[in-house]
Every structure is written in structure tokens, then in C-alpha cells.
Amino acid sequence: MPLRIRRIAPGEALGDVQRLRREVYFHERGQYTDRSKRVSDGLDGCGTTLVVERDAQAVATLRLHDFGSSAVQVEYGSLFELDAFARTWPLPSVAVATRFAVQADQRSKPVVDRLMEGSYRWAQSKGIRFCLLACEPYLHSVFEHYGFSEYLPPAILPGGVELLRMALVIDDAPHLQACNSPLQYLIEQPVIGVPARAWLGRAFAAARE
């Protein structure tokens, strides 16, 4: 069946996305009784949720916010050291991607390609310069393939959970081409992407040493 990418705007019903999140986060990991981990939260109401559908069924999803929202700043600002971005960049030009989930039997390159292409187009349409995410180490190679790279050391959460803090610089042509990212054909403004990459390297150099 053909794949379709769809944006769910802030405030719209998530529909089958909830089923997909529950399947990946709880059933797949055996967390049937862990009620402290929810498939939705208050930020669903102000974020854009992307969903890849096959025959009207959600098979992959990702939630996107820009940091212009105070609620997003409170939730994720410390984790991503947002203050460093805020000294140079307008906060609506920095985004965070969360709630990544792909159905177990759909974890193929075409499905994830559609999801990441949709995310990249969303970022371009919003004037985003940096898209941030935190992922578990086993997903590092997935996001690295699309052009994300670690810009800070891993964050260690309570309980010893390690999260990699990664950034994708939008329209960073040299980097996307060097890693042969499937997103490189979407580049529109390399004259903006290159200096943004240089700034990111300088701003967080000390933190990575």
C-alpha cells in the first residue's frame, strides 16, 4: 500500500497516533502497568504531529514544537541548554522533535524517510534553523543517517537512563552531503545553513571537550 505523510495541527485529534504510541512505548516494552508513562501529555495540544499512514493506519510518527512556546521552554529548555541558543537565535527558529515511534513491522527505510522528509519540510516552512532531539543510544545511527549529530555530551537522567542530545542544522549542505543524508535534495538556503553549523560548533565546543 502507498505511504502518505500527514500533519496534525495543534489542537486536532491525534486519532490512530495514540494507538501507535501505546503499541511502541508500552506493549513492545512490556510496560503494561506503568501508569506514570503516558502516551500523550499537555504538549500534544500545541505541537504539530507528523504521521506516516499506510492504508489509513498510522505506522510512524514524530511530534514537533518550536521553542517560542513557554511550555516547551520549561519542559525541554534545560535538557538542550536552550539559553545558549537564545543569546544568538530567535527561539521560534529552534525546534525540538519528540514522541518518535515506528510500528515494529514497518521499520523500513521508505517509512522513516517519509517521516524525516516531512519533518524537514515542516522545519523549512517555519523558518527553523536547528531541530533538536534526545534519543537513546540505540537510535543514534538512525538519526545520524539523516544528518543529526551530537552537539552536547549525553544527558544522564534519574535512574541512569542515557540520552544523546543531537541537532540537525537545516540546509547545512556540506554536512548533509558528506553524510549522504536522504534529506540533501531538500536543501533550499545553504548560505544560511553553513554559518548556523559553524555557530553550533563554536557555541558548544567547550561542553564537548
Outline of this structure?
The protein is an alpha+beta fold. It has helices at 16-27, 70-76, 82-86, 109-125, 140-146, 173-178, 190-203, 205-208, and strands spanning 3-8, 48-54, 57-66, 94-102, 130-135, 149-150, 155-156, 162-169.
Q: In total, how many beta strands?
A: 8
Task: Give the helix tally.
Answer: 8
Main sheet specs: 8 strands, mixed
Q: For the terminal residues, how far apart are their CA atoms?
A: 48 Å
Mean pLDDT: 92
What overall geometry do the principal axes of the alpha carbons give?
globular
Rg over alpha carbons:
17 Å
SSE pattern, N- to C-terminal: EHEEHHEHEHEEEHHH
Structural class, from secondary structure content?
Answer: alpha+beta
How helix-rich are the residues, as a percent range?
25-40%
Strand content: 15-25%
Unreliable stretches covering 5 or more consecutive residues: none
What does this entry look like structurally?
This protein is α+β, with helices and mostly antiparallel strands. The protein is 34% helix and 24% strand. The chain contains 8 helices and 8 strands, in the order βαββααβαβαβββααα. It has helices spanning 16-27, 70-76, 82-86, 109-125, 140-146, 173-178, 190-203, 205-208, and strands at 3-8, 48-54, 57-66, 94-102, 130-135, 149-150, 155-156, 162-169. Strands 1, 2, 3, 4, 5, 6, 7 and 8 form an 8-stranded mixed sheet that branches. Strand 2 and strand 3 form a beta hairpin. The radius of gyration is 17 Å and the shape is globular. The protein starts with a strand and ends with a helix. The model has no long low-confidence stretch (mean pLDDT 92).
